[in-house]
Design a protein that fits this description.
The complex is a heterodimer of chains A (124) and B (924).
Chain A: E1 4-8, H1 12-24, E2 28-32, H2 35-44, E3 49-52, H3 61-70, E4 78-83, H4 88-96, E5 101-104, H5 109-120
Helix pairs in contact in A: 2-3
Chain B: H1 4-30, H2 39-46, H3 52-65, H4 71-96, H5 102-109, H6 114-147, H7 167-183, H8 196-222, H9 226-235, H10 251-268, H11 270-278, H12 285-301, H13 304-314, H14 325-332, H15 336-376, H16 389-414, H17 420-431, H18 434-443, H19 449-474, H20 481-485, H21 506-528, H22 533-543, H23 545-548, E1 559-561, H24 564-575, H25 577-590, H26 603-617, H27 619-629, E2 631-633, H28 637-643, H29 646-712, H30 718-750, E3 758-760, H31 762-780, E4 783-788, E5 795-797, H32 799-816, E6 823-831, E7 834-841, H33 875-885, E8 889-894, E9 900-907, H34 914-923
Parallel strand pairs in B: 4-6
Antiparallel strand pairs in B: 1-2, 3-5, 6-7, 7-9, 8-9
Helix pairs in contact in B: 1-8, 2-8, 2-12, 3-13, 3-15, 4-10, 4-12, 5-6, 6-7, 6-15, 6-16, 6-17, 6-19, 7-15, 7-16, 8-13, 8-14, 8-15, 9-13, 10-11, 10-17, 10-21, 11-15, 14-15, 15-16, 15-27, 17-21, 19-21, 24-25, 24-26, 26-27, 29-30, 30-33, 31-32, 32-33
Chain lengths: 124, 924
């Protein structure tokens, strides 16, 4: 089944790498480069998973996550936070806000893909 | 049988006995076996309080006021209960400071003030003279009555008697003679009169027995006991009122005032002070006196009312003065012996009072009034007289004579206007003025000399106005009109109804106002001022006497020296050479030395000399005399502090504590502020650290990701492979740049950067910078124009750094210019005292809110869509630091949508002179 993934990050280079990785796994990809764009993208088309950076212009990743979790339409969306902010407090905050996974940059490609797969295709 | 000469003979015989007792007492004292070291004798001597007022006057008052005569004895009884505290303190103080009179006490307490001593003396003399006059009147009157036996004749009223026929004159003269004999045979350093006291005790017994005899005779001889007298009195018209309290004159208010008055008088009458304080040998005798004296009072008052009632019932109304009942009742019943005994009793009462009172007053007059004045008269050159003891005695004798003469004069002038009792009460009110100064002085350290003077003066003034003047007016020596209407017709100021305060008898009225003025002035002036050093010392010594003296407190305030050779003659002048030698010798032995020559001339000796002298001439004068021979320095502050007790130390400590706690508070506040600052810095550092890590991780993320992708997948297309590698390269470069800039920033901020200042030409710098960025411009298709204004002077700066700045500005400009039609202009211009470089672009501009923010670390202007060689966000921060380091300023001007101009100014090296100020101003 073709899953749709929304990538939200403001660094172009990183977006390119993520795009490549996701497409390689056969997922459909949309991109947003800031928090507002992300919400607009969500409204346009429901993704199955959002790769969410935190340090975004306009609306930061935490807030986007809150909005996603707070909206009935979007509650089922998986959220994976991908960010350079790696302190325990940040991790806890992210997970506390409802993220399904939290990955720190720089990330291992293998690891990231494995997590996404797990989230999108539960065993069974 | 009772002829005049018999009476006279018996009287002289009695006085002779008294004198013999006094002589014997003196002899025993010299032999070292004093007979007055006996609590019974001490207590009996206190009974000198009971004068002819008690003996005759009580009955007189009882006859008109019933038991209204009692307050005068209730007072002392109540006061005695407090004696253990108050009197003992006074005695202890007086012994410690060798105080010889009440004037001396007050003067000593308030800094050894001669003014106060004089004031107290004047008040005492003027106040007590009427009282002495009263005794004269009683004695001479009783003599006259008895001499007319068997007829009962009242002494003539009015001042009709010419002096030579007035027996009072002779009485006064005889009393003067006896007083001189009793009191001024020699000077004692302690002013104790060893012979006088047993004589007084004896006469106390005599008067008590005499009164008891008459009383018993009336009660049991004439009537059938107490019960019958009272029963008959209640039945007699007009007499029953006398047995009730309200029937007594004045009611409870009067009782209250009179009780208070007599409480004061038992302390402050000069004769009472003399016998209870000065003559006291051992303060433990107070213990017995506390119950013996009230007992005495009880006994002597036991029969007063019965005698009064009896007299009223025996004699027809108005025929016989009630004052004389004690004498006239036995006379009426032909009991000659009893009548003579009664007369002797009255004589006892009167002479005891006069002798003691006059001696006490003469001591005060000599020590506290005359001597200070004489010592000030340099022309008398008293300092050079070898022996002043004769002078002192003479002064005292003259004083005695003068006092008795004045008393007679008063008696002659005013003695008939009042009953005996009223005169006495006026005197009580006068000595009551000492109460605030003395009682305040021994309990309140804050009392000052000024306060005491103010209190005494105002109280005495009011006393004169409300009590003394009216008594003269009523005797016809002043217009009686002013009593009724007030001075100059001011009814509000009527002496006996001041400010409209009516309803009180004249004594209570006068007492009220005088005490009000006294206490008010005393407290008010004391609080308004501050005690001087001398006063504070004395205050502490007095108020804390129980703490300081188990022995004598020897920490002298004297700082000075005088040898025995000087002090001995000085003392000899006043005490007599013999006694002075004895005193010094005794002192030397106490110090464990053999002879008085070996006494060191130290402060201790000076202090000893002063106290000895104080016994003879009073504390204030003694200090003056000793000071004249001693090389003295005024007491230093540390010495005064030595004397003052822990109270002042505690005060100092608490002040220190206060100050320390204030400092502590200040330090705490500082610490708190510093802590907050540190926390802020910490937060900033944390923010910085997290930002830095974030910035570093971002390019690393791409590098790693693409590296892994390329590694994992050998099948990737070449084009993509190239693309990915290019990104890796780019991000690596970015990372490198970031690290370099961060290091640079760190160096600059920590002050470790190396700056080379050399002369440089901005033209060249700009041209080079343009060259290095020309590729960027070309790549983005942005036009660059350079405007250099010639010529520009050289400046001192670091070439590389300047390049760094210009390149930074140029690359920013290029980044933010629109790819099509972007235009950037570089302009170099000269300003007064400075150079200015502007870099202008026509990009989107910068919002005003961001115009400050962009200079902050890691801030990148615009959106992240500013691609290109990815800004680090540090460029402007570093540029600004660099420019500021060279005294310049980097700023931006921009309107959103209209591009931005970054400008920096650099000051020219200042030519010496006004130009420098210009440059400095520009650089701000």
């Amino acid at each position: 089944m073709g899953k749709h993934i929304l990538i939200v990050d403001d660094e172009p280079s990183i977006v390119v790498s993520l795009e490549f990785l996701m497409k390689r796994e056969g997922y459909e990809v949309s991109v947003a480069s800031d928090g507002e764009e992300a919400l607009q993208a969500l409204a346009r088309r429901l993704p199955d998973l959002v790769i969410l950076d935190i340090m975004l212009p306009r609306l930061n990743g935490f807030e986007v996550c809150q909005r996603i979790r707070g909206d009935d339409r979007w509650r089922a969306i998986k959220v994976l936070m991908l960010t350079a902010k790696g302190r325990d407090t940040e991790v806890a905050k992210g997970l506390g806000l409802g993220a399904d996974a939290y990955v720190t940059k720089p990330f291992s490609t293998r690891d990231l893909v494995a997590q996404i797969k797990r989230l999108l295709e539960p065993a069974g | 049988m009772l002829q005049g000469w018999v009476i006279v003979l018996v009287s002289f015989a009695y006085l002779g006995i008294l004198f013999a007792i006094a002589y014997y007492g003196d002899r025993r004292a010299r032999a070292g076996r004093s007979i007055i070291a006996n609590p019974f004798i001490y207590s009996l001597s206190l009974a000198v309080y009971c004068t002819t007022w008690t003996f005759y006057g009580s009955v007189g008052r009882a006859a008109s006021n019933g038991i209204g005569f009692l307050p005068v004895y209730l007072g002392p009884t109540l006061m005695v209960a407090l004696w253990w505290y108050v009197m003992r303190k006074i005695i202890r103080i007086s012994k410690a400071h060798r105080i010889t009179s009440i004037a001396d006490f007050v003067a000593s307490r308030y800094g050894k003030s001669q003014t106060l001593g004089g004031l107290v003396t004047v008040i005492a003399v003027l106040g007590v003279i009427p009282y002495i006059a009263l005794q004269l009147k009683a004695i001479s009157g009783s003599f006259t009555i008895l001499a007319h036996y068997p007829r009962i004749v009242m002494p003539a009223h009015g001042a009709a008697l010419p002096m030579l026929q007035d027996s009072a004159v002779y009485v006064a003269a005889i009393l003067a003679a006896f007083t001189l004999l009793f009191g001024t045979r020699h000077l004692d350093a302690t002013e104790r009169h060893e012979g006088l006291v047993p004589a007084i005790a004896f006469e106390s017994i005599v008067k008590l027995l005499a009164f008891l005899a008459v009383g018993a005779f009336v009660t049991f001889g004439i009537y059938g006991g107490f019960g019958e007298i009272f029963r008959l009195a209640r039945e007699a018209p007009g007499l029953s009122a006398l047995t009730t309290v309200t029937g007594a004159g004045g009611g409870f208010a009067t009782w209250g005032f009179l009780t208070f008055l007599s409480m004061m008088s038992i302390l402050f009458l000069p004769r009472q002070f003399q016998v209870s304080v000065v003559e006291n040998v051992d303060e433990k005798h107070l213990g017995k006196a506390i119950w013996l004296f009230p007992l005495y009072l009880l006994l002597i008052n036991l029969f007063v009312l019965p005698v009064a009632l009896g007299g009223l019932m025996l004699f027809e109304a108005g025929g016989v003065d009630a004052d004389t009942f004690v004498l006239t009742i036995p006379m009426a019943w032909r009991r000659e012996g009893l009548a003579l005994f009664a007369f002797i009793g009255g004589l006892s009462a009167g002479t005891g009072m006069v002798i003691v009172e006059t001696i006490a007053l003469s001591t005060m007059v000599c020590n506290d009034l005359v001597m200070p004045v004489l010592l000030h008269q340099r022309w008398l050159r008293l300092n050079e007289r070898a022996d002043l003891s004769g002078l002192l005695l003479t002064i005292r004798r003259v004083a005695i004579g003068a006092i008795l003469m004045l008393s007679y004069a008063y008696f002659h002038v005013a003695g008939e206007a009042y009953a005996l009792v009223s005169i006495g009460l006026i005197s009580f009110a006068a000595v009551a003025q000492f109460a605030p100064a003395v009682l305040g002085g021994i309990y309140w350290k804050g009392a000052t000399r000024a306060g005491a003077i103010a209190g005494l003066s105002s109280g005495f003034a009011v006393w004169i106005y409300t009590l003394a003047l009216p008594s003269l007016a009523k005797s016809g020596w002043m217009h009686a009109r002013f009593l009724a209407d007030g001075p100059f017709g001011a009814t509000l100021l009527r002496p006996q109804a001041l400010f409209g305060l009516g309803g009180l008898d004249e004594i209570s009225h006068g007492l009220f106002w005088s005490m009000l003025a006294n206490i008010g002035a005393y407290v008010g002036v004391s609080l308004a001022g501050r005690p001087h050093v001398e006063e504070t010392t004395q205050a502490a010594l007095f108020v804390d006497v129980f703490r300081h003296t188990q022995g004598l407190d020897r920490s002298p305030v004297w700082r000075g020296s005088a040898s025995v050779d000087v002090l001995l003659p000085l003392l000899g002048r006043f005490l007599g050479p013999e006694r002075a030698r004895e005193a010094f010798l005794a002192h030397a032995r106490r110090r464990g030395l053999d002879s008085l020559e070996s006494l060191p001339g130290d402060a201790d000796l000076v202090y000893f000399a002063e106290t000895q002298l104080a016994g003879a001439i009073g504390g204030a004068s003694a200090r003056v005399m000793v000071a004249s021979v001693v090389h003295e320095e005024p007491p230093g502050l540390d010495e005064v502090l030595d004397i003052l007790d822990e109270a002042s130390q505690v005060r100092a400590y608490s002040q220190q504590l206060e100050q320390k706690s204030r400092e502590l508070e200040a330090a705490t506040a500082e610490l708190r502020a510093a802590n907050e600052q540190l926390q802020e810095l910490d937060r900033v550092k944390d923010d910085f650290m997290s930002t830095v890590t974030h910035e570093l991780r971002t390019p690393l993320t791409s590098i790693r990701a693409f590296s892994e992708i390329l590694l994992d997948d050998p099948e990737i297309q070449l084009a993509e492979r190239k693309r990915f590698l290019a990104i890796i390269v780019k991000e690596t470069a970015r990372l490198t740049r970031l690290i370099n800039q961060m290091l640079d920033m760190a160096k600059i901020e920590s002050g470790n950067a190396e700056w080379c200042a050399a002369e440089l030409d901005m033209h060249e710098v700009i041209r080079e910078a343009v060259e290095s960025t020309s590729q960027l411009f070309h790549d983005r298709g942005v036009e660059l124009s350079v405007v250099l204004v010639e010529p520009t002077p050289r400046i001192m700066a670091d070439r590389d750094r300047m390049m760094q700045v210009v390149i930074n500005l140029l690359s920013n400009a290029v980044k933010f210019s629109p790819p099509q039609g972007g235009r950037v202009e570089v302009r170099l211009d000269a300003r007064p005292g400075a150079l200015q470089v502007d870099v202008t672009d026509n990009g989107p501009g910068i919002r005003p809110a961001d115009q400050q923010a962009i200079f902050e670390k890691f801030r990148r202007g615009g959106d992240a869509a500013s691609g290109g060689p990815g800004g680090t966000g540090l460029g402007l921060s570093i540029s600004r630091r660099i420019i500021e380091h060279f005294g310049g300023r980097l700023s931006v001007e921009s309107k959103p949508g209209r591009g931005a101009t970054f400008s920096f100014v650099l000051p020219l090296p200042a030519p010496p002179g006004p130009g420098a100020r210009e440059a400095a101003r520009v650089a701000e």
